């Protein structure tokens, strides 16, 4: 995992867009974004994921593979994933293969880019503005964890500005770490 401020260039979203200003784990924590590196065997990692599911009340999971050959309407889907949005549930992703970027908004409404790759587990809190993109390899396979039935329901900005989960997230940002 590597985190830094996004350079706000209009170049391809799959490029690094590294501004040269790093973001620390502590800064991510202040945004309530959680990160873990799972470096065990697949069985050991699954055991850690199962423990996390029990602790957080997650009952379902699935896997998603994204690439031009694996995802129907690939370019259109990437645009949907990259649109700024929130969810009313936290989003937990464990990267099994490949690489991608989660961009999250900090307290000053600046984009922080988080590069995730194999073994990275990221928890994006409910209500935070974020977006996702692949990197230039155009491939990722990830496990998605869900409290209930698998669903991915984005609420795009600006509609989400008045959403209860977004408002609750903003109030809680300074209290988390």
Task: Summarize the SSE layout with pairings.
Elements: E1 2-6, E2 18-22, H1 25-30, E3 34-37, H2 42-56, E4 60-66, H3 74-82, E5 85-86, E6 91-105, E7 111-117, E8 120-124, E9 130-134, E10 140-146, E11 155-156, H4 164-172
Descriptive report:
- By secondary structure, the protein is an alpha+beta fold.
- The mean pLDDT is 95.
- Strands 1, 2, 3, 4, 6, 7, 8, 9 and 10 form a 9-stranded antiparallel β-sheet that branches. It has a two-stranded antiparallel ribbon with strand order 5-11.
Tell me the radius of gyration: 15 Å
Number of helices: 4
Largest sheet: 9 strands, antiparallel
Order of helices and strands: EEHEHEHEEEEEEEH
The shape, in one word, is: globular
| Percentage of residues assigned to helices | 10-25%
* Helix-strand category: alpha+beta
Q: Which stretches are poorly predicted, pLDDT < 50 over at least 5 residues?
A: none
Mean pLDDT: 95
How far apart are the first and last residues' alpha carbons, in Å? 20 Å
Quote the beta fraction. 35-45%
Would you report the number of β strands? 11
Keywords:
177 residues, alpha+beta, nine-stranded antiparallel beta sheet, two-stranded antiparallel sheet, 11 strands, 22% helix, globular
Summarize the structure.
The chain is α+β, with helices and mostly antiparallel strands.
């Amino acid at each position: 995992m590597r985190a830094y401020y996004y350079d706000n260039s209009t170049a391809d979203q799959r490029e690094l867009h590294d501004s040269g200003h790093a973001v620390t784990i502590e800064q991510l924590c202040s945004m309530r974004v959680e990160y873990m590196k799972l470096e065990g065997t697949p069985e050991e990692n699954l055991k850690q994921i199962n423990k996390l599911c029990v602790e957080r009340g997650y009952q379902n999971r699935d896997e998603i593979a994204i690439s031009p050959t694996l995802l129907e309407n690939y370019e259109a889907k990437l645009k949907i994933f990259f649109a700024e949005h929130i969810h009313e549930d936290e989003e937990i992703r464990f990267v099994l293969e490949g690489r991608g970027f989660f961009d999250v908004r900090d307290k000053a409404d600046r984009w922080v880019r988080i590069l995730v790759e194999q073994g990275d587990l990221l928890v994006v809190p409910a209500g935070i503005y974020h977006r996702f993109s692949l990197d230039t390899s155009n491939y990722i396979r990830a496990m998605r964890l869900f409290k209930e039935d698998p669903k991915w329901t984005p609420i795009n900005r600006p509609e989400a500005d008045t959403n209860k989960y977004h408002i609750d997230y903003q109030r809680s940002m300074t209290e988390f770490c």
